[in-house]
Amino acid sequence: MPRIPRQIIPLIIIIVIVIVGFITARQIFVPASFGDLGFYRADALKEATAIEINYAGANACVECHSDIDDLKASAFHRKLSCETCHGPSAKHADAPDETLPFIPKGRDFCPVCHGYNPSRPSGFPQILPEQHNPGKACISCHNPHNPTPSHTPEECSACHRTIANQKLVSHHTSLPCTQCHNVPKEHRANPRLIRAEKPAGRETCTACHSKSAVSSLEIPRIDIETHGERRVCWDCHYPHFPEGT
Amino acid sequence: MMNTNRPQMWRRDFLKTCAQKLSLIAGSIVAVGGMKAMAGEENDKYNPSEHNYAMAIDIHKCIGCGRCVEACKKENNVPLDGAHFRTWVERYIIPEDGETYVDSPNGGMNGFPELKSDKNVLRTFFVPKLCNHCEDPPCVQVCPVGATYISPDGVVLVDSEYCVGCRYCIQACPYGARYLHPEKLVAEKCTFCYHRITKGLLPACVEVCPTGARIFGDLKKTSSPLRRFFHFMDISVLKPWMNTKPKVYYGSIDGEVK
After folding, report:
1. B215 in contact with A at a CB cutoff of 8 Å?
2. Domain limits of chain A?
3. Which of A15, A44, A77, A219 has its CA 20 to 30 A from that of B174?
4. B38–chain A Cβ distance below 8 A for any pair
5. What's domain B53-251's architecture?
6. Cα gap B129→B238, rounded to integer Å
């Protein structure tokens, strides 16, 4: 057996220590699953999968709220997921009684999509929030699950177009003409001979606007005893555009 | 007598042993079948290598409402400030003459303010952006520790336990899709909502998109909604000259979009 030169022995020892040190360091520092699937920690995939969800998904909502889903199915909002408007609701889906999802009621929410913006694709329904029934909550005319509003009868506007247009942008937009005018059937066939009735007194307005009236809480109220003394309402307020005067 | 009896005995023995063997074989087949069925149930859970996820974006449908940006932030606990986004919406305004103007105030999360300009606008539209989940991602190439990787289902992910926060990947991404989390000090990015898609749900941005401008699907499945999109739209990707092979496909996108 050839004799190993003396100067080589310490070198061999050093090399062995370095190799053993490298192997042990690698064992300690490289995670166990590193390299199983590629140049990364395979366990990281499991960790990425284990994160909790915040959005439950529309299928989870339908399990309980099938009535709203049925209503929505034939409406313009049929493709909208519930959580587009109601926000993340996974907690509500897990424990329905403990947390309730967000219900947007204000006037600032719908224009997020439906406010006019020239960059939006043409054909997408948009409004100018400053002009479209200002001050009124969107949900008082539009059911968000079936947003097409109830149309006022349009037969009057064939002749009374100016009045109809003015009423269209006023707070009275959803009122039919017959709310205040008593219109005989014959008026349509013979409009000059058989006239539609105009309101006679304050009772027409106070039916909704007096403090004791049974009507929607959004309607502004007055005290009929003190407001406007003996004048009729339309001396000061134009009924087809009441906010204009 | 003996000669006539013996064959009968043999036959009985033969039939007996046959019945025993048959019952054994039948039993073992049933048992093996049952075990296979159980193993099949386990495999049904989720097998990443059977998928290759991608997204398509129809910019003609995007209304710039920013629901996707908000949903992404709420789903993935992204800081709610105006500097960290996994997805965001850009508004492009192309004037008749002059340079294209692009803005994304707060990622488009709170809408886009009216732009006051005396220039005549030729075209204007919204472009949602996110990580392109490239097939050849530069971010994965440059990571010095192997903290970012392509998962077997084709999603580029970050291992936040292993990331050292060196920001190389943020520099390398041609699409600006990555950010450094201000508290955790690790790189973060769009994961296609990996925790959702592995459970069979849609990514949060796709879930909430009101107009269907975002389409999510599996390139390995013929029944994916992506197939229909590819069939009917002119497809392009962002910055194709970078050779990153992005997997976020834009339909009929304007040439000005970079």
Report:
1. no
2. 153-198, 200-236
3. A44
4. no
5. 2-Layer Sandwich (3.30)
6. 10
